[in-house]
Amino acid sequence: MLGSGYTGHVLYTMGAAQGRTVLATSRNPLRNLAEVPSEQRVMFDLEQPSTWRNIPTGADLVWCFPATPLHQVETFAGWLNASARRLVVLGSTSAYEVGESQDYPPQWIDETAPIDLTKPRVQGEEFLRHKYGAIVLRVAGIYGPGRNPLNWIQQGRVGPSRKYVNLIHVEDLAAICLAAIEKGPPGEAYNVSDGQPHTWSEICATAQQRWNVAGTPTKEDHSTGKRISNAKVRTALGYTLRHPDLYETLQTLT
Ligand SMILES: NC(=O)c1ccc[n+]([C@@H]2O[C@H](COP(=O)([O-])OP(=O)(O)OC[C@H]3O[C@@H](n4cnc5c(N)ncnc54)[C@H](OP(=O)(O)O)[C@@H]3O)[C@@H](O)[C@H]2O)c1
Predict the structure, then answer these.
(1) What is the pLDDT of residue 254?
(2) 161 C-alpha vs ligand 1 centroid, how far in Å?
(3) Mean pLDDT calculated for residue range 127-136
(4) Cα–Cα distance between 98 and 122 in angstroms, integer?
(5) CA 190 to CA 176: how far, in whole Å?
(6) Exposed/middle/buried for 235, CB within 10 Å: 0-12, 13-18, 19+?
(7) CA distance linking residue 18 with residue 154, whole number of Å
(8) Does the C-beta of 64 come closer than 6 Å to ligand 1?
(9) Beta strands 227-228 and 108-109, pairing class
(10) Which of 15, 47, 124, 127 is the most buried (most CB within 10 A)?
């Protein structure tokens, strides 16, 4: 795992439970990987080429931080001989923020929709996909233990609006990373979302009704948001979601 933050920690535990040897990288392993056995901690910083040699030859890679800046991504991938490895790169559904469509509800977005190649991370992801056969996961908003949308409402980070949001539970994301490493064809892109876009108005109303969670006033947001299709990950990768229902899962997070 290149980068062991929120998703990386879940991926580490899940991979190890499946009997894999998982190595976790950090720019500061002593501080950020204290719970990982020392022989599985790797010091790695994309910006520090002297740390690249710490990546073991032959390891498959899941890249868990934005693949940018492009020149560094290019040099690192060349140095690594990335095409000889299985490589999964976590991207973002923000790649699809292109143009100003005001359709409402917004059109469903699958992996053939246009992406914004002016975004640095999208440039990095597409470079790795085309040149080295990386599998790019375009990831929706990640939630789970410690990242609870009900807290975002309470803190005023989001408020009732017509905007559609797409979410994915961190356990599903980690499991999809492992499925992609195992059986994803090189060079593919997959949307990673629970496939149930909600408006923030609906989530806020449900939060109030079911859990008595009240928001704080927020700036009005008239944007449409997106509706992300997850059909490809379910059919082509054969993945069945563990957390398809946001509200059922929020019940267990409260
Ligand atoms: N959060 C969301 O809702 C969301 C939505 C869509 C897509 N994504 C994307 O999904 C991926 C995983 O998200 P996450 O929230 O699990 O990420 P995260 O918690 O930020 O973890 C990524 C880790 O990568 C390491 N890192 C950062 N820059 C690095 C660099 N230049 N070189 C080496 N390591 C570096 C950092 O760990 P150290 O400080 O220990 O090195 C960081 O904790 C990210 O690419 C994120 O942009 C996130």
Answers:
(1) 64
(2) 28
(3) 97
(4) 12
(5) 10
(6) exposed
(7) 37
(8) yes
(9) parallel
(10) 124
How far is the first Cα of the chain from the last one, in angstroms, to the nearest whole number? 29
- Give pLDDT tens digits for 182-197: 999 999 999 999 999 9
Domain locations along the chain: 6-253
Residue whose CA lies nearest to ligand 1 atom number 38: 26
pTM higher than 0.85: yes
pLDDT digits (tens, 9 = 90+) for 138-155: 999 999 999 999 999 999
Kindly report whether the peptide bond that precedes residue 244 is cis, defined as omega within 30 degrees of 0: no
Q: Whose CA is nearest to atom 17 of ligand 1?
A: 5
For residue 55, give both structure tokens: 């990546």
Give residue 35 CA to ligand 1 midpoint distance, Å: 18
And the tokens for 29?
A: 């392993």
Q: CA 33 to CA 237: how far, in whole Å?
A: 31
Ligand 1 neighbourhood includes 180 CB (under 6 angstroms): no
Classify the C-alpha dihedral 128-130-132-135 as positive or negative. positive
Answer whether 66 contacts ligand 1 (Cβ < 6 A).
yes
CATH topology of domain 6-253: Rossmann fold (3.40.50)
DSSP assignment of 177-219 equals: HHHHHHHPPTT-EEEES-S--EEHHHHHHHHHHHH--------
Quote the ligand 1 centre to 7 CA distance (angstroms): 8
In whole angstroms, give the CA distance from residue 240 to residue 43. 34
Question: For residue 79, what are the CA distances in angstroms to 44, 85, 91, 202, 233?
Answer: 14, 12, 22, 48, 30
